[in-house]
Amino acid sequence: MLRQTIKERVSLNSKFFKSLNFRIMVILFLVGTIPAVILSAAFLSAYRDQSLARLGSDVTNQCQILATQIGSANYLDDPSNETLTGELMQLATLYDGRILIIDQNFQILVDTYALEEGRTMLAEEVIKCFKGESTSHYVSGRFIEMTVPVTGSGEDKTIIGVILASASTDSMNARLEDLRNFADIWLAVGSICVMALAFLLSNWLVKPLRHMNKFIGDLVEGALDGDLDIHDCTETENISNTFNSLLAKLRLMEESRQEFVSNVSHELKTPLASMKVLADSLLVQEGAPVELYQEFMQDIAEEIDRENTIISDLLTLVKTDRKVTKPNVEVTNVNEFLEQILKRLRPIAEKANIEMVFESNRSVSAEIDVTRLSLAFSNLVENAIKYNHENGWVRVSLDADHKFFYVKVSDSGMGIPEEALDYIFERFYRVDKSHSREIGGTGLGLAITRSAVVAHRGAIRVQSTVEEGTVFTVRIPLRYIT
Ligand code: ADP
Q: Can you give the pTM of this predicted structure?
């Protein structure tokens, strides 16, 4: 039980992580937060650089003023000038730093920390400064160190000393840290807002898909009622339209299935009803003569034959329908194939005194399913014989071009009324029910024929004039198109 719940939860979680909803949410979140994080980092770094530059230039300016004063007051020769010493101390305190004054002998004359006066200072920056190159650099993230030359009061402006000053960056760093904390808090608050917005937006975006899923789920469970009507955006509108076309097709199929089932039941019941009537009438007649028995039994046997024909036609139709996607094709000589069919049917034609002719100007070879097309053409020729007049004729002709072969089955029979032409390929359709029943039709022959022709990616056409005759034309590709 527990394992089941854990399993369910894991599958629910993995479903959520795989969902479009989650993906849209992640994308929106990243698009919303990454630029903010980059901007905040860039802003903080620019602010730090600018603060450092400002501090450096402030201290340098102050030192330069002092350097001028030191030069003109000969402070290097006589460092007892209290005003200048006081200014040095003030400057050092102001920037929380330290100032050293170094003379030409690299000796420290003044140290605001009063620690190293009298010592020698041979730092690289100091030497560079004596050569006329002022420096300023950031040391170990805690302070800036810079050198400013002190020039003599004479005309030649020779460098007689160097001011080595350092200014603490602690307060700047503290300000930067505050700013960073402030930015982090806003980033966190912003991220939560973006997350909530992404959640709402992603839900809104996948809502039409959820509606679609629900509608299709309801369809699966119930009847094929209603249409999918989701017009939130062009894509869902297109899917709705395509889905509705599919639905219409399904409904049509369902309708034709129901019609087929009711037709089948009706057709199968008719011979049974006749047999019942015949048997009942024999039963109620006491002492009926043997001749009557024989006559009625003859009728019953005919009805059984009819029932048999209907069932075998139905089985053929179901088989051909199921195989509609893949006929078993082989290269066949169509002339010989048609002659064979006609040979088989000639005795029936001769019985009705019907002349049967085969016309062909060329030899045609094509990729066909012999079994299925033999059934299709047999049905056409059989019909041409069945629905003909005594002493009539049936003509079968074969022709071809570079792509198709054409078989025409013409007869001099009773013809088909114009209004019936659209229906003759429907299952169980018969023009004159009583007449064709007499002739022995089931109404399935042309449906079987069309199914076989369609399976070969071919086409069938009919032209007919009542009391003059009918022409069926079948067109089949020479090469089977998969
Ligand atoms: P059936 O088993 O009744 O012959 P088919 O599907 O073969 O069924 O034909 C359907 C109906 O079309 C027939 O009942 C008949 O009325 C009509 N029909 C078919 N072929 C011909 C034809 N060559 N001449 C006149 N009517 C035809």
A: 0.54
